[in-house]
Design goal:
The protein is mainly beta and 561 residues long. It contains nine helices and 28 strands. Among the domains are: 83 residues, OB fold (Dihydrolipoamide Acetyltransferase, E2P), CATH 2.40.50; 75 residues, Beta Barrel (OB fold (Dihydrolipoamide Acetyltransferase, E2P)), CATH 2.40.50; 97 residues, OB fold (Dihydrolipoamide Acetyltransferase, E2P) (Beta Barrel); 125 residues, Nucleic acid-binding proteins (OB fold (Dihydrolipoamide Acetyltransferase, E2P)). 9% of the residues lie in helices and 34% in strands. Pfam families: S1 (PF00575), S1_RRP5 (PF23459).
Length: 561
Protein backbone atom coordinates (compact mmCIF):
# COMPACT_ATOMS: atom_id res chain seq x y z
CA UNK A 1 0.00 0.00 0.00
CA UNK A 2 1.08 3.56 -0.51
CA UNK A 3 2.41 5.42 2.51
CA UNK A 4 2.11 9.04 3.41
CA UNK A 5 4.56 11.18 5.31
CA UNK A 6 3.55 12.33 8.73
CA UNK A 7 2.58 16.03 8.62
CA UNK A 8 3.80 18.55 9.76
CA UNK A 9 6.92 17.08 11.39
CA UNK A 10 9.88 15.84 9.42
CA UNK A 11 12.23 13.12 10.52
CA UNK A 12 12.72 9.46 9.72
CA UNK A 13 10.63 8.04 6.94
CA UNK A 14 7.81 5.99 8.48
CA UNK A 15 7.38 2.38 7.51
CA UNK A 16 3.61 2.65 7.85
CA UNK A 17 1.19 5.47 8.41
CA UNK A 18 -1.84 3.35 9.23
CA UNK A 19 -3.88 4.60 12.14
CA UNK A 20 -4.98 1.57 14.16
CA UNK A 21 -7.84 2.19 16.52
CA UNK A 22 -7.28 0.86 20.02
CA UNK A 23 -9.63 -1.52 21.77
CA UNK A 24 -10.93 1.32 23.90
CA UNK A 25 -13.19 3.86 22.21
CA UNK A 26 -12.72 7.21 23.89
CA UNK A 27 -15.56 8.11 26.18
CA UNK A 28 -16.00 4.48 27.29
CA UNK A 29 -14.30 3.77 30.61
CA UNK A 30 -12.05 0.72 30.60
CA UNK A 31 -12.62 -1.49 33.63
CA UNK A 32 -10.69 -4.74 33.85
CA UNK A 33 -11.79 -5.76 37.34
CA UNK A 34 -15.46 -6.13 36.49
CA UNK A 35 -17.45 -8.38 34.24
CA UNK A 36 -18.14 -6.93 30.82
CA UNK A 37 -21.67 -5.79 30.31
CA UNK A 38 -23.58 -6.34 27.11
CA UNK A 39 -23.94 -3.19 25.08
CA UNK A 40 -27.42 -1.84 24.65
CA UNK A 41 -28.64 -2.21 21.09
CA UNK A 42 -29.12 1.18 19.46
CA UNK A 43 -32.11 2.14 17.42
CA UNK A 44 -31.84 2.95 13.74
CA UNK A 45 -32.31 6.65 14.56
CA UNK A 46 -29.39 6.74 17.00
CA UNK A 47 -26.53 8.40 15.12
CA UNK A 48 -23.91 7.84 17.79
CA UNK A 49 -24.13 11.32 19.29
CA UNK A 50 -26.68 10.68 22.01
CA UNK A 51 -25.71 8.89 25.20
CA UNK A 52 -27.65 7.98 28.29
CA UNK A 53 -25.06 9.31 30.68
CA UNK A 54 -22.14 11.72 30.64
CA UNK A 55 -18.70 10.21 31.12
CA UNK A 56 -16.72 11.94 33.83
CA UNK A 57 -13.35 12.84 32.32
CA UNK A 58 -11.38 12.27 35.51
CA UNK A 59 -12.24 8.56 35.29
CA UNK A 60 -10.49 8.00 31.99
CA UNK A 61 -7.09 9.37 31.00
CA UNK A 62 -7.71 8.71 27.30
CA UNK A 63 -11.00 10.61 27.43
CA UNK A 64 -9.23 13.57 29.05
CA UNK A 65 -6.38 13.58 26.56
CA UNK A 66 -8.62 13.37 23.51
CA UNK A 67 -10.73 16.21 24.90
CA UNK A 68 -7.77 18.59 25.17
CA UNK A 69 -8.09 21.61 22.89
CA UNK A 70 -5.68 24.19 21.60
CA UNK A 71 -5.97 27.60 23.22
CA UNK A 72 -4.19 30.94 23.22
CA UNK A 73 -2.33 29.79 26.34
CA UNK A 74 -1.18 26.48 24.88
CA UNK A 75 -0.22 27.55 21.37
CA UNK A 76 3.29 29.05 21.24
CA UNK A 77 5.81 30.46 18.78
CA UNK A 78 7.29 27.95 16.29
CA UNK A 79 4.22 25.72 16.66
CA UNK A 80 3.36 23.91 13.40
CA UNK A 81 -0.29 23.42 12.48
CA UNK A 82 -2.57 22.67 9.54
CA UNK A 83 -5.10 25.44 8.88
CA UNK A 84 -7.80 26.38 6.42
CA UNK A 85 -8.23 29.81 4.82
CA UNK A 86 -11.49 31.35 5.97
CA UNK A 87 -11.20 34.81 4.40
CA UNK A 88 -8.96 36.45 1.79
CA UNK A 89 -8.40 40.20 2.14
CA UNK A 90 -6.25 42.65 0.20
CA UNK A 91 -3.22 42.50 2.46
CA UNK A 92 -3.79 39.46 4.67
CA UNK A 93 -5.42 36.05 5.06
CA UNK A 94 -7.63 34.91 7.93
CA UNK A 95 -7.10 31.24 8.72
CA UNK A 96 -9.29 28.80 10.62
CA UNK A 97 -7.20 26.75 13.06
CA UNK A 98 -8.06 23.68 15.18
CA UNK A 99 -10.23 24.17 18.29
CA UNK A 100 -12.07 27.08 16.62
CA UNK A 101 -9.07 29.44 16.80
CA UNK A 102 -8.44 32.10 14.16
CA UNK A 103 -5.04 33.29 12.93
CA UNK A 104 -3.71 35.89 10.47
CA UNK A 105 -1.15 35.61 7.68
CA UNK A 106 0.15 38.94 6.43
CA UNK A 107 1.15 39.31 2.77
CA UNK A 108 4.83 39.53 3.78
CA UNK A 109 4.68 36.04 5.33
CA UNK A 110 3.56 34.07 2.26
CA UNK A 111 6.86 33.44 0.49
CA UNK A 112 10.24 35.04 -0.09
CA UNK A 113 9.62 35.21 -3.84
CA UNK A 114 6.33 37.06 -3.29
CA UNK A 115 8.13 39.59 -1.08
CA UNK A 116 10.58 40.22 -3.91
CA UNK A 117 7.64 40.79 -6.27
CA UNK A 118 6.13 43.33 -3.85
CA UNK A 119 9.45 45.12 -3.53
CA UNK A 120 9.90 45.27 -7.30
CA UNK A 121 6.39 46.67 -7.69
CA UNK A 122 7.01 49.39 -5.10
CA UNK A 123 10.24 50.34 -6.91
CA UNK A 124 8.42 50.52 -10.28
CA UNK A 125 10.44 47.62 -11.65
CA UNK A 126 7.32 45.66 -12.63
CA UNK A 127 3.88 46.89 -13.69
CA UNK A 128 1.73 44.65 -11.51
CA UNK A 129 1.85 42.07 -8.77
CA UNK A 130 -0.54 39.21 -8.22
CA UNK A 131 -3.21 40.06 -5.64
CA UNK A 132 -4.05 37.74 -2.74
CA UNK A 133 -7.65 37.03 -3.87
CA UNK A 134 -6.23 35.56 -7.10
CA UNK A 135 -3.61 33.49 -5.24
CA UNK A 136 -5.79 31.88 -2.57
CA UNK A 137 -9.35 30.68 -2.22
CA UNK A 138 -11.62 30.28 0.76
CA UNK A 139 -11.47 26.74 2.13
CA UNK A 140 -7.90 26.07 0.98
CA UNK A 141 -5.76 24.01 3.39
CA UNK A 142 -2.30 25.38 4.22
CA UNK A 143 0.62 24.47 6.45
CA UNK A 144 1.45 27.18 8.99
CA UNK A 145 3.96 28.17 11.64
CA UNK A 146 3.11 30.35 14.62
CA UNK A 147 5.13 33.57 14.67
CA UNK A 148 3.50 35.38 17.58
CA UNK A 149 0.64 35.00 20.05
CA UNK A 150 -0.55 38.07 21.94
CA UNK A 151 -3.88 39.44 23.18
CA UNK A 152 -5.84 36.57 21.59
CA UNK A 153 -4.23 37.28 18.22
CA UNK A 154 -2.20 34.66 16.37
CA UNK A 155 0.23 35.76 13.67
CA UNK A 156 1.13 33.01 11.22
CA UNK A 157 3.56 32.28 8.40
CA UNK A 158 3.26 29.91 5.45
CA UNK A 159 6.73 30.60 4.08
CA UNK A 160 8.47 27.31 3.11
CA UNK A 161 11.55 28.08 5.21
CA UNK A 162 9.25 28.32 8.25
CA UNK A 163 6.82 25.42 7.75
CA UNK A 164 9.57 23.06 6.51
CA UNK A 165 12.22 24.26 8.96
CA UNK A 166 12.43 20.90 10.75
CA UNK A 167 13.05 18.94 7.58
CA UNK A 168 16.38 17.97 6.10
CA UNK A 169 17.33 16.61 2.65
CA UNK A 170 17.51 13.11 4.13
CA UNK A 171 13.81 13.35 5.05
CA UNK A 172 12.74 13.64 1.42
CA UNK A 173 11.58 10.50 -0.33
CA UNK A 174 9.15 9.56 -3.08
CA UNK A 175 5.60 10.45 -2.02
CA UNK A 176 6.64 12.93 0.68
CA UNK A 177 4.24 15.88 0.95
CA UNK A 178 5.60 19.44 0.85
CA UNK A 179 4.26 22.98 0.83
CA UNK A 180 6.35 24.91 -1.69
CA UNK A 181 6.45 28.36 -3.30
CA UNK A 182 7.11 29.25 -6.93
CA UNK A 183 10.49 30.97 -7.18
CA UNK A 184 10.67 31.42 -10.94
CA UNK A 185 9.12 30.19 -14.16
CA UNK A 186 11.34 28.40 -16.67
CA UNK A 187 10.67 27.05 -20.17
CA UNK A 188 9.59 23.59 -19.03
CA UNK A 189 8.48 24.19 -15.47
CA UNK A 190 8.86 26.09 -12.22
CA UNK A 191 11.74 26.39 -9.80
CA UNK A 192 10.24 25.81 -6.35
CA UNK A 193 11.31 27.04 -2.94
CA UNK A 194 10.86 24.26 -0.36
CA UNK A 195 12.78 26.00 2.42
CA UNK A 196 15.12 23.04 3.00
CA UNK A 197 18.87 23.81 3.01
CA UNK A 198 20.99 22.51 0.10
CA UNK A 199 17.88 21.42 -1.79
CA UNK A 200 16.84 22.41 -5.31
CA UNK A 201 13.27 21.62 -6.33
CA UNK A 202 11.71 21.62 -9.81
CA UNK A 203 8.05 21.26 -10.79
CA UNK A 204 7.63 20.30 -14.49
CA UNK A 205 4.72 21.99 -16.25
CA UNK A 206 3.29 18.63 -17.28
CA UNK A 207 3.15 17.68 -13.56
CA UNK A 208 1.11 20.74 -12.55
CA UNK A 209 -2.53 20.05 -11.73
CA UNK A 210 -4.84 21.31 -14.47
CA UNK A 211 -6.84 23.38 -11.97
CA UNK A 212 -3.78 25.39 -10.91
CA UNK A 213 -2.54 28.58 -12.53
CA UNK A 214 0.84 29.07 -10.90
CA UNK A 215 2.70 32.36 -10.73
CA UNK A 216 5.79 33.63 -8.94
CA UNK A 217 5.28 33.77 -5.19
CA UNK A 218 2.31 31.40 -5.09
CA UNK A 219 2.07 28.59 -2.53
CA UNK A 220 1.03 25.07 -3.52
CA UNK A 221 1.11 21.52 -2.19
CA UNK A 222 3.53 19.16 -3.92
CA UNK A 223 4.50 15.53 -3.70
CA UNK A 224 8.06 14.32 -4.22
CA UNK A 225 8.34 12.38 -7.48
CA UNK A 226 12.07 11.66 -7.38
CA UNK A 227 15.19 12.64 -5.43
CA UNK A 228 18.77 12.79 -6.66
CA UNK A 229 21.33 13.25 -3.91
CA UNK A 230 24.99 14.24 -3.91
CA UNK A 231 27.41 15.17 -1.12
CA UNK A 232 26.69 18.88 -1.66
CA UNK A 233 22.99 19.07 -2.47
CA UNK A 234 19.76 17.29 -3.33
CA UNK A 235 17.73 17.77 -6.52
CA UNK A 236 14.03 17.06 -6.09
CA UNK A 237 11.45 16.65 -8.83
CA UNK A 238 7.89 17.46 -7.71
CA UNK A 239 4.31 17.00 -8.86
CA UNK A 240 1.19 18.92 -7.86
CA UNK A 241 -1.27 16.63 -9.64
CA UNK A 242 -4.32 16.29 -7.41
CA UNK A 243 -4.71 12.57 -8.13
CA UNK A 244 -1.16 11.96 -6.89
CA UNK A 245 -1.71 14.05 -3.75
CA UNK A 246 -4.86 12.07 -2.95
CA UNK A 247 -3.36 8.68 -3.77
CA UNK A 248 -1.76 8.09 -0.39
CA UNK A 249 -4.84 9.26 1.52
CA UNK A 250 -7.46 6.56 1.93
CA UNK A 251 -10.55 7.75 3.78
CA UNK A 252 -12.37 5.54 6.26
CA UNK A 253 -15.96 6.35 7.17
CA UNK A 254 -17.05 6.81 10.77
CA UNK A 255 -19.92 7.98 12.87
CA UNK A 256 -19.09 10.48 15.64
CA UNK A 257 -18.21 8.76 18.91
CA UNK A 258 -18.61 10.09 22.44
CA UNK A 259 -15.34 11.95 22.39
CA UNK A 260 -13.19 10.82 19.47
CA UNK A 261 -10.87 7.99 18.48
CA UNK A 262 -7.66 6.79 20.09
CA UNK A 263 -5.20 4.89 17.96
CA UNK A 264 -1.55 4.31 17.23
CA UNK A 265 0.67 5.53 14.40
CA UNK A 266 4.22 4.53 13.48
CA UNK A 267 3.80 1.34 15.44
CA UNK A 268 3.26 2.41 19.02
CA UNK A 269 2.78 6.19 19.13
CA UNK A 270 -0.61 7.10 20.59
CA UNK A 271 -2.58 9.64 18.58
CA UNK A 272 -6.12 11.02 18.68
CA UNK A 273 -8.86 12.08 16.29
CA UNK A 274 -11.27 14.49 17.93
CA UNK A 275 -14.96 14.38 17.20
CA UNK A 276 -15.14 17.16 14.55
CA UNK A 277 -12.46 15.43 12.48
CA UNK A 278 -14.06 11.99 12.24
CA UNK A 279 -15.23 11.53 8.68
CA UNK A 280 -18.46 9.76 7.79
CA UNK A 281 -19.54 7.53 4.93
CA UNK A 282 -22.68 5.41 4.59
CA UNK A 283 -23.43 5.90 8.28
CA UNK A 284 -20.72 3.50 9.52
CA UNK A 285 -17.99 4.11 12.06
CA UNK A 286 -14.51 2.50 12.14
CA UNK A 287 -14.52 -0.97 13.63
CA UNK A 288 -12.22 -1.98 16.45
CA UNK A 289 -8.76 -2.67 15.08
CA UNK A 290 -9.54 -1.23 11.65
CA UNK A 291 -6.71 0.61 9.89
CA UNK A 292 -7.59 4.08 8.60
CA UNK A 293 -5.65 6.89 6.91
CA UNK A 294 -5.23 10.23 8.64
CA UNK A 295 -3.45 13.56 8.31
CA UNK A 296 -1.84 15.06 11.39
CA UNK A 297 -3.17 18.52 12.28
CA UNK A 298 -0.69 19.35 15.05
CA UNK A 299 1.23 17.90 17.98
CA UNK A 300 0.04 18.98 21.42
CA UNK A 301 2.81 20.18 23.76
CA UNK A 302 4.52 19.33 26.01
CA UNK A 303 4.38 15.65 25.10
CA UNK A 304 3.96 16.26 21.34
CA UNK A 305 0.85 14.08 21.21
CA UNK A 306 -0.40 13.91 17.59
CA UNK A 307 -3.95 15.03 16.84
CA UNK A 308 -5.18 14.05 13.40
CA UNK A 309 -8.06 14.33 10.95
CA UNK A 310 -9.69 11.75 8.71
CA UNK A 311 -10.79 14.43 6.23
CA UNK A 312 -9.33 14.55 2.73
CA UNK A 313 -7.79 18.01 2.46
CA UNK A 314 -7.26 17.60 -1.30
CA UNK A 315 -10.79 16.63 -2.26
CA UNK A 316 -11.64 19.01 -5.15
CA UNK A 317 -15.37 18.33 -4.72
CA UNK A 318 -15.40 19.91 -1.27
CA UNK A 319 -15.84 23.69 -1.30
CA UNK A 320 -16.52 26.05 1.57
CA UNK A 321 -19.73 27.24 -0.09
CA UNK A 322 -21.23 23.74 -0.20
CA UNK A 323 -20.31 22.91 3.38
CA UNK A 324 -22.45 25.55 5.04
CA UNK A 325 -26.11 24.79 5.57
CA UNK A 326 -26.74 27.93 7.63
CA UNK A 327 -25.71 31.56 7.31
CA UNK A 328 -24.66 33.83 10.16
CA UNK A 329 -27.78 35.00 11.96
CA UNK A 330 -29.95 32.04 10.95
CA UNK A 331 -32.15 30.65 13.74
CA UNK A 332 -32.49 26.92 14.38
CA UNK A 333 -35.72 26.23 16.20
CA UNK A 334 -35.07 22.71 17.51
CA UNK A 335 -31.34 22.21 18.02
CA UNK A 336 -30.78 19.08 20.09
CA UNK A 337 -28.20 18.85 22.88
CA UNK A 338 -25.92 15.91 22.14
CA UNK A 339 -22.98 16.18 24.53
CA UNK A 340 -20.90 18.65 26.50
CA UNK A 341 -17.16 18.74 26.86
CA UNK A 342 -16.17 19.59 30.41
CA UNK A 343 -12.51 20.37 29.75
CA UNK A 344 -13.32 22.59 26.79
CA UNK A 345 -16.10 24.40 28.67
CA UNK A 346 -18.63 24.03 25.88
CA UNK A 347 -21.75 22.12 24.93
CA UNK A 348 -22.69 20.88 21.47
CA UNK A 349 -26.00 20.60 19.66
CA UNK A 350 -27.20 19.37 16.32
CA UNK A 351 -30.00 20.55 14.09
CA UNK A 352 -31.70 19.32 10.95
CA UNK A 353 -30.95 21.31 7.83
CA UNK A 354 -33.74 22.96 5.90
CA UNK A 355 -34.21 21.17 2.56
CA UNK A 356 -35.27 24.43 0.98
CA UNK A 357 -32.09 26.33 1.76
CA UNK A 358 -29.34 23.77 2.31
CA UNK A 359 -27.53 21.79 -0.38
CA UNK A 360 -27.75 18.01 -0.02
CA UNK A 361 -23.96 17.69 0.13
CA UNK A 362 -23.54 20.08 3.04
CA UNK A 363 -22.27 18.15 6.02
CA UNK A 364 -24.62 15.15 5.93
CA UNK A 365 -28.15 15.00 7.31
CA UNK A 366 -27.36 17.07 10.41
CA UNK A 367 -25.05 19.92 11.36
CA UNK A 368 -23.19 20.36 14.63
CA UNK A 369 -22.88 23.58 16.59
CA UNK A 370 -20.90 24.48 19.71
CA UNK A 371 -22.22 26.75 22.43
CA UNK A 372 -19.47 28.16 24.65
CA UNK A 373 -19.98 28.15 28.41
CA UNK A 374 -19.27 31.87 28.47
CA UNK A 375 -22.52 32.33 26.56
CA UNK A 376 -24.46 30.42 29.23
CA UNK A 377 -25.80 32.33 32.23
CA UNK A 378 -24.25 30.60 35.24
CA UNK A 379 -25.51 30.39 38.82
CA UNK A 380 -23.36 31.01 41.88
CA UNK A 381 -24.63 27.86 43.60
CA UNK A 382 -23.70 25.54 40.72
CA UNK A 383 -20.45 24.52 39.08
CA UNK A 384 -20.09 24.79 35.31
CA UNK A 385 -20.63 21.05 34.95
CA UNK A 386 -23.76 21.06 37.11
CA UNK A 387 -25.20 24.04 35.26
CA UNK A 388 -24.61 22.43 31.87
CA UNK A 389 -26.17 19.17 32.97
CA UNK A 390 -29.13 21.06 34.43
CA UNK A 391 -29.70 23.48 31.54
CA UNK A 392 -28.75 21.25 28.59
CA UNK A 393 -29.61 17.63 29.40
CA UNK A 394 -28.68 15.22 26.63
CA UNK A 395 -31.49 15.05 24.10
CA UNK A 396 -33.13 18.35 25.09
CA UNK A 397 -34.01 20.83 22.33
CA UNK A 398 -33.23 24.55 22.25
CA UNK A 399 -33.77 27.57 20.03
CA UNK A 400 -30.35 28.82 18.94
CA UNK A 401 -28.82 31.30 16.53
CA UNK A 402 -25.81 30.85 14.25
CA UNK A 403 -22.90 33.15 15.17
CA UNK A 404 -20.36 31.81 12.70
CA UNK A 405 -18.87 28.75 11.03
CA UNK A 406 -15.39 27.32 11.56
CA UNK A 407 -14.04 25.89 8.33
CA UNK A 408 -11.37 23.60 9.77
CA UNK A 409 -13.44 21.96 12.53
CA UNK A 410 -16.60 22.21 10.40
CA UNK A 411 -18.79 23.27 13.32
CA UNK A 412 -20.99 26.28 13.94
CA UNK A 413 -20.69 28.69 16.84
CA UNK A 414 -24.16 29.09 18.31
CA UNK A 415 -25.91 30.97 21.09
CA UNK A 416 -29.22 30.80 22.90
CA UNK A 417 -28.92 34.19 24.60
CA UNK A 418 -32.19 36.07 24.30
CA UNK A 419 -30.62 39.40 23.31
CA UNK A 420 -28.81 37.74 20.38
CA UNK A 421 -31.83 35.70 19.38
CA UNK A 422 -33.79 38.95 19.09
CA UNK A 423 -31.02 40.86 17.29
CA UNK A 424 -32.13 42.08 13.85
CA UNK A 425 -28.80 42.56 12.08
CA UNK A 426 -26.18 39.82 11.93
CA UNK A 427 -24.52 40.38 8.55
CA UNK A 428 -24.14 43.03 5.86
CA UNK A 429 -26.52 41.13 3.62
CA UNK A 430 -29.34 42.13 5.96
CA UNK A 431 -28.66 45.85 5.45
CA UNK A 432 -29.73 48.00 2.51
CA UNK A 433 -28.49 51.38 1.30
CA UNK A 434 -30.70 54.18 2.54
CA UNK A 435 -32.05 52.20 5.48
CA UNK A 436 -32.39 54.08 8.80
CA UNK A 437 -30.84 52.08 11.66
CA UNK A 438 -29.91 52.40 15.32
CA UNK A 439 -26.17 52.19 15.96
CA UNK A 440 -24.05 51.99 19.11
CA UNK A 441 -20.83 54.04 19.24
CA UNK A 442 -17.76 51.91 19.93
CA UNK A 443 -14.93 54.39 19.18
CA UNK A 444 -14.68 58.18 19.13
CA UNK A 445 -11.79 60.06 17.48
CA UNK A 446 -11.34 63.58 16.14
CA UNK A 447 -11.72 62.38 12.55
CA UNK A 448 -14.32 59.60 12.67
CA UNK A 449 -16.63 57.41 14.69
CA UNK A 450 -16.91 53.65 14.77
CA UNK A 451 -20.15 51.95 15.66
CA UNK A 452 -22.04 48.66 15.52
CA UNK A 453 -25.37 48.06 13.85
CA UNK A 454 -26.46 44.89 15.58
CA UNK A 455 -23.49 42.56 15.00
CA UNK A 456 -22.18 44.55 12.00
CA UNK A 457 -19.28 47.00 12.28
CA UNK A 458 -19.84 50.47 10.79
CA UNK A 459 -17.84 53.63 10.14
CA UNK A 460 -18.93 57.29 10.32
CA UNK A 461 -16.57 59.74 8.54
CA UNK A 462 -16.10 63.20 10.02
CA UNK A 463 -18.01 64.81 7.17
CA UNK A 464 -21.13 62.84 8.15
CA UNK A 465 -21.13 63.56 11.87
CA UNK A 466 -23.24 66.72 11.45
CA UNK A 467 -24.83 68.97 8.82
CA UNK A 468 -22.15 71.61 9.32
CA UNK A 469 -19.57 69.56 7.44
CA UNK A 470 -15.84 70.10 7.93
CA UNK A 471 -14.19 73.49 8.22
CA UNK A 472 -10.40 73.48 8.21
CA UNK A 473 -8.84 76.77 9.25
CA UNK A 474 -5.60 77.11 7.26
CA UNK A 475 -4.15 79.31 10.00
CA UNK A 476 -4.63 76.62 12.64
CA UNK A 477 -3.15 73.15 12.75
CA UNK A 478 -5.98 71.75 14.85
CA UNK A 479 -8.97 69.65 13.91
CA UNK A 480 -12.55 69.87 15.07
CA UNK A 481 -13.33 68.49 18.53
CA UNK A 482 -17.03 68.12 17.71
CA UNK A 483 -17.00 64.33 17.62
CA UNK A 484 -15.47 64.03 21.11
CA UNK A 485 -17.78 66.66 22.55
CA UNK A 486 -21.00 65.31 21.08
CA UNK A 487 -20.52 61.54 21.13
CA UNK A 488 -19.45 58.99 23.76
CA UNK A 489 -18.65 55.28 23.61
CA UNK A 490 -21.80 53.26 24.26
CA UNK A 491 -24.13 56.02 23.06
CA UNK A 492 -26.97 54.97 20.75
CA UNK A 493 -27.47 57.10 17.63
CA UNK A 494 -29.77 57.04 14.62
CA UNK A 495 -28.05 56.83 11.25
CA UNK A 496 -28.70 55.97 7.64
CA UNK A 497 -26.74 53.43 5.60
CA UNK A 498 -24.66 55.50 3.19
CA UNK A 499 -22.70 52.74 1.45
CA UNK A 500 -22.05 49.00 1.61
CA UNK A 501 -19.00 47.17 0.31
CA UNK A 502 -19.21 43.46 1.12
CA UNK A 503 -15.86 42.80 -0.54
CA UNK A 504 -14.13 45.05 1.97
CA UNK A 505 -16.62 44.41 4.77
CA UNK A 506 -17.27 48.14 4.89
CA UNK A 507 -20.46 49.85 6.12
CA UNK A 508 -20.56 53.66 6.11
CA UNK A 509 -23.19 55.56 8.08
CA UNK A 510 -24.30 59.17 7.99
CA UNK A 511 -25.59 60.96 11.07
CA UNK A 512 -26.49 64.17 9.22
CA UNK A 513 -29.98 65.26 10.35
CA UNK A 514 -30.79 66.45 6.82
CA UNK A 515 -30.18 62.91 5.53
CA UNK A 516 -32.26 61.33 8.28
CA UNK A 517 -35.51 63.06 7.36
CA UNK A 518 -38.25 60.42 7.06
CA UNK A 519 -39.54 61.88 3.77
CA UNK A 520 -36.06 62.00 2.18
CA UNK A 521 -35.96 60.48 -1.29
CA UNK A 522 -32.85 58.37 -1.46
CA UNK A 523 -30.83 57.91 -4.64
CA UNK A 524 -29.29 54.49 -4.01
CA UNK A 525 -28.19 53.66 -7.57
CA UNK A 526 -27.92 55.09 -11.06
CA UNK A 527 -30.76 52.86 -12.21
CA UNK A 528 -33.22 54.46 -9.77
CA UNK A 529 -32.40 58.05 -10.84
CA UNK A 530 -35.20 59.97 -12.57
CA UNK A 531 -34.84 62.96 -14.86
CA UNK A 532 -36.17 66.09 -13.15
CA UNK A 533 -36.16 64.58 -9.65
CA UNK A 534 -34.44 66.38 -6.77
CA UNK A 535 -32.06 64.63 -4.40
CA UNK A 536 -30.09 65.77 -1.38
CA UNK A 537 -26.34 65.72 -2.03
CA UNK A 538 -23.15 66.11 0.01
CA UNK A 539 -20.30 68.40 -1.05
CA UNK A 540 -17.25 66.25 -1.63
CA UNK A 541 -14.61 68.85 -2.54
CA UNK A 542 -14.25 72.61 -2.81
CA UNK A 543 -11.73 74.20 -5.19
CA UNK A 544 -11.17 77.97 -5.08
CA UNK A 545 -14.46 79.86 -4.97
CA UNK A 546 -16.53 77.32 -6.83
CA UNK A 547 -17.91 73.94 -5.85
CA UNK A 548 -16.75 72.04 -8.91
CA UNK A 549 -16.83 68.58 -7.34
CA UNK A 550 -19.85 67.48 -5.34
CA UNK A 551 -21.10 64.07 -4.38
CA UNK A 552 -24.70 62.92 -4.69
CA UNK A 553 -26.01 60.55 -2.06
CA UNK A 554 -25.68 57.35 -4.08
CA UNK A 555 -24.40 53.78 -3.98
CA UNK A 556 -21.33 54.51 -6.12
CA UNK A 557 -20.10 57.63 -4.41
CA UNK A 558 -16.65 57.69 -5.96
CA UNK A 559 -18.22 58.01 -9.41
CA UNK A 560 -21.29 60.12 -8.60
CA UNK A 561 -19.66 63.53 -8.88
Amino acid sequence: MDTEEYFPRGGKKPTSTHFKQSANFLGTIEKTDKKKTKLKKKSDEDDGYLSDEIVQPDEDKSYRTCGLCLSYKIIKEDFLVLGRISEVKETKLLVSLPSRLIGTVMACHISESYNKQLEAYVNDQIDKVKELPTMFKKGQYVSLKILEVSDRQIMLSMMPQHVNSMRRPADLHKGALLQAAVSSEEDHGFMMDVGIPNTTAFLPKDAVDSELELDIGMITWCSVKSVETSPDKSVVKLTSNMAVLQKSFQRTSSDPLDNGIEGRIFGDRVAYIQRPHIDTSKGKKPALGQKIRVRVLYCMPPGNIPYASMRDVFDPAVTSALERAYNDGDIVEDAQSVYFRLGGRSTAAKGKRSKKTAPESAGGPTCTGVLSVRRVQMHDDFTDEQMLAKSYPIGSTHRVRILGYHLLDKVYSITDQSNLLNEKYFSMSQLTIGEVVTATITEVTDKHLRATVGRVQAFVPQAHVSDSGIYMDPKKATVSKLTRKKYKVGQEVTGRILSLDEGRHSVVLTLKPSLLAPDLEVLASYESARVGAQYTGVIGQKNGRQFDDSTVYSRRQKEDK
